[in-house]
Specification:
The radius of gyration is 24 Å and the shape is globular. The chain has helices at about 75-80, 85-90, 100-110, 115-125, 130-145, 155-180, 195-205, 215-225, 235-245, 250-260, 270-280, 285-295, 310-330, 335-345, 350, 360-370, 375-395; strands at about 5-10, 15-20, 35, 40, 60, 65-70, 70-75. The protein is mostly helical and about 425 residues long. The protein has a 3-stranded antiparallel sheet. The protein has a two-stranded antiparallel sheet with strand order 1-2. The chain is built from 17 helices and 7 strands.
């Protein structure tokens, strides 16, 4: 027998049973109730309890602190896989065989370079341009160079667009980074892996070739794996919403970059570093904590919309911090961060509110240690998220249930009014 929800409206006497599937009801079924001449609807700003799709890509149990890609725990993938292996998993549903992985890596390598004409566009940005602005504009421009991306119903065309996006994101990010530093672009190196090539394009110099330290490359791989996807967040919702009107992958992911650029989504790790610097020293942490409790300031990097437990990504990043600092030297802000974490895990104020460190708490420390300025932090989020966006895009456009996004509104403005000629308006 199907599980159902009985709803009765006493004022009208209307009553109906709604079928419960996957702990949800179909919102459209509420229209059976007529309330004051209007069909009943739900009001849910921010989609805090509204499911917009079925998805088989990423699973999160926020209460338990669980994150899985296609059923694989994030910690297992971070320990054993490369980023491109995880990207293949997100897109195809299964981990690749050795032969499949080699073919996938070769395909990505083939598409690393960006069109020469696009370099001219990049040159037109001012040196002060934010790298996320450059990244967003460049990804949107890809449709001009690869118009076959609009043929997304063709699996071959769709697969080609996805490979191009994932392959070129590090190249664009490196170009944006070097432009801000007034340095010449560095072309991709075909004999380097995905993350090693990215670091090479970022930091190589004509008189001082960049030698990729394998532990730093591995740290970048781990960070990329952790940021590859995260279910139906703001930027993923933007990608899916833009896709709903029939857009190509590049246009949709440009929208995702725009959403990620917002400080409430992608900029939290920069805010953590700013907070740590404002605290200044370990002996001032207690004073800062009292300010948080009194509502005078905020604890950045703690708490999450989904996780009501320790963010599983934060645990993994914390271990990567130690690996990176063994090579780059310890950032003095780490001691402050560790003391803040101690309060967060032990102090009743934070424990009762289930405010645990999230992925942004330690990631900024790693990025800074690797030599990135704060304005690049969100770019380093966007590059690996391209694979998740591509997987979500692919799932959306092949889902027969989906239709163009058109949220309902509750109108609160004037009712019909008579027009008053301009000369008679008081």
């Amino acid at each position: 027998m199907a599980d159902t929800l009985l709803i009765r409206h006493p004022a009208s006497g209307a009553e109906t049973e709604l079928t419960i599937t996957d702990a949800s009801i179909r919102a459209a079924e509420l229209r059976r109730f007529n309330i004051g001449g209007e069909p009943l609807a739900t009001f849910d700003p921010g989609f805090t309890n509204t499911a917009a799709c079925h998805s088989a890509i990423t699973y999160i149990d926020g209460d338990a602190g669980v994150l899985e890609y296609r059923g694989y725990p994030i910690a297992t993938l971070a320990e054993h896989s490369t980023y491109l292996e995880v990207a293949y998993l997100l897109l195809n549903g299964e981990l690749p065989t050795a032969t499949e992985l080699t073919a996938w890596e070769d395909r990505i390598t083939t598409h690393r370079r960006v069109p020469e004409e696009l370099k001219t566009v990049l040159a037109g940005f001012p040196a002060s341009a934010h790298p996320m602005t450059i990244l967003m504009s460049s990804v949107a421009a890809f449709f001009s160079f690869y118009p076959d991306a609009r043929n997304f119903d063709d699996p071959a065309s769709r697969s080609r667009a996805i490979a191009r996006l994932i392959a070129k994101m590090p190249t664009l990010a490196a170009y944006a980074f070097r432009k801000g530093r007034g340095e010449a672009y560095v072309a991709p190196e075909d004999d380097l892996g995905y993350c090693a090539n990215f670091l090479h394009m970022l930091f190589a110099q004509p008189d001082r070739p960049y030698e990729e330290h394998q532990r730093l490359v591995r740290a970048m791989e781990v960070l990329f794996i952790l940021h590859a996807d995260h279910e139906q967040n703001c930027s993923t919702n933007a990608v899916r919403s833009v896709a709903s009107s029939g857009n190509d992958l590049f246009t949709c992911c440009s929208a995702g970059i725009g959403a990620l650029h917002g400080p409430l989504h992608g900029g939290a790790n920069e805010a953590v570093l700013k907070m740590l610097r404002e605290i200044g020293s370990v002996d001032r942490v207690g004073e800062f904590i009292e300010g948080v409790k009194a509502g005078r300031t905020r604890m950045m990097g703690f708490g999450h919309r989904v996780y009501k437990n320790y963010d599983p990504r934060a645990k993994i990043i914390k271990s990567s911090v130690e690996d990176v600092f063994e090579i780059t030297g310890v950032n003095p802000l780490l001691k402050i961060a560790l003391e803040l974490e101690r309060y967060g895990l032990d102090d009743e104020y934070f424990v009762s509110r289930r405010l645990y460190p999230n992925v942004d708490f330690y990631s900024g420390l790693i990025y800074e240690a690797l030599g990135f300025p704060p304005e690049m932090f969100t770019v380093l989020f966007a590059v690996p998220r391209a694979s998740g966006w591509a997987a979500q895009y692919q799932e959306f456009i092949t889902d027969p249930e989906q239709k163009i996004a058109r949220p309902k509104q509750i109108y609160t403005g004037h009712s019909t009014r008579d027009y008053v000629p301009i000369g008679a308006r008081g």
